[in-house]
Write a structure and sequence with these properties.
single chain, mainly beta, four-stranded antiparallel beta sheet, globular
Amino acid sequence: MPNGSVSPFRPTGTVSLAASSASANVTLSGGGDTVVVTNTAGVLAYVRFGSDATVVASTTDMPVLASSRVILSVNNLIKNAAAITPSGSGTILFSRGDGSTL
């Protein structure tokens, strides 16, 4: 595929994480070079990815606005994700797969 081209997102697995003011983490499901992070909560969340279950999110990591989603590129070493909400709580969905647009 040429540089700059886009292809539809093809999910291979989704996991959910109950986020709160204390960082929590989850093992990602499926494979691929893309993760769509969906913040179903009504509060701001921060996410971080790592190669093992010790990954911890903080308020200096990637923000995901309330009731929104972002699509991020990852590599095959990424196996886990963490999330934290500075206030309130909610569910964060991590959908792994391939593609660059929704």
